[in-house]
Specification:
This protein is α+β, with helices and mostly antiparallel strands. It is built from two helices and six strands, in the order βαββαβββ. Strand 2 (28-35) and strand 3 form a beta hairpin.
Length: 95
């Protein structure tokens, strides 16, 4: 399974529309469009999971392709290093 990063999505894009676009190039296992955690608004990017062969075809066909007036950026997603928890130091300490 390969996870593709899909960037420059229009804010009006839906999971269903992205699934339909990518399914022309193979079987889509999962679509995850990313929203801002505070406002709930779309962030303009997401991820699509497909088999490796299907993902390669989709990446070739859709990188730079126009979708709802925007040129998509499609490439293989890179695993992010998870940063530590939200502790930033400081705060109140009792001695």
């Amino acid at each position: 399974m390969t996870k593709l990063y899909v960037g420059n999505l229009p804010f009006t894009a839906t999971d269903e529309a992205v699934r339909e676009l990518f399914s022309k190039h193979g079987t889509v296992e999962k679509v995850s469009l990313i929203s801002d955690r505070d406002t709930g608004r779309p962030r303009g990017f997401g991820f699509v999971e497909m088999s490796s062969a299907d993902a390669a075809r989709a990446m070739q066909a859709l990188n730079g392709a126009e979708f709802e007036g925007r040129a998509l950026k499609v490439n293989e997603a890179q695993e992010r290093e998870r940063s530590g928890g939200g502790h930033r130091g400081g705060g109140s300490r009792r001695y």
